[in-house]
Fold this protein.
Amino acid sequence: MPQPELPALTRLGYGAANVGNLFRELTDEQAWAILDAAWDAGIRYFDTAPHYGLGLSERRLGAFLRTKPRDEFVISTKAGRLLRPNPDDGGGLDLAADFHVPTTLRREWDFSAAGIRASLDESLERLGLDRLDVLYLHDPERHDLDLALREAFPALQGLRDEGAVDAVGIGSMVSSALAAAVEGADLDLIMIAGRYTLLEQSAADEVLPACHERGTGVVAASVFNSGLLAKDEPSRDDRYEYGRMPDELWDRLQRVLAVCRAHGVPLPAAAVQFTLRDPAVRSVVVGGSRPEQLRRNAELMAVDIPAVLWDDLAAEGLIR
């Protein structure tokens, strides 16, 4: 069963993909200013991954956190993809993965025990830290979920049992993979990306019940659904994940927005606070590519939301 003592996560965490140059290039100074704003806003949980900017996110985040007392923050990163020299590098950018970084490295899947340990060791080296709080297996369904259940998760559990990390889990956008991992492995935390939000709650069917049964904690990520819920007035042309929003989802969003307006609650405030209503959810991790976005997210988390808003959304069949 999961370990009883989990790292203490702040209600609001920062997902550091943006400081790995997700969608646009940032200077080191711009990245530092974002992380500084997150810290000043009270955020003490930071999540990263080797995948984010081919290691750039880890290097920048580590440089920042090394200036802070180690016992004042929690950091998670991910395993499953090793970074190796790219023999096919033609001097381009990693735009196929949406990161504006040179393709001098490439990602290689490795779910073996040796690969998982190497991933941890290499992440610690890039971060410049001597220990890690949480290690997630990153998107295992994109490679081989059965192999992950046979090899990768036992390897993660071994690292936890020997004290190399405090907690282990999975990070994924796929509800079926999350449920299989919770039911088939001894995990402490899972990171649900985009599947448990004010707009979309597919993870409520299988994933959350399994977490409740096994005592597994949840971190909710991508709660703004690609930024769609981060605006007071969403646009029909806004991107949803990797393309255009389905008509059914747009209609649902309009109904959610109408309830929020009726109670004078900004849509983004309801979006960032919604998942915390479930007792399994320990933290909400949001991104941000500008300092003002981090300050705004902290303000949204502090908005007083009347219970009747949630009651009305449930009565409309818009939330569970």
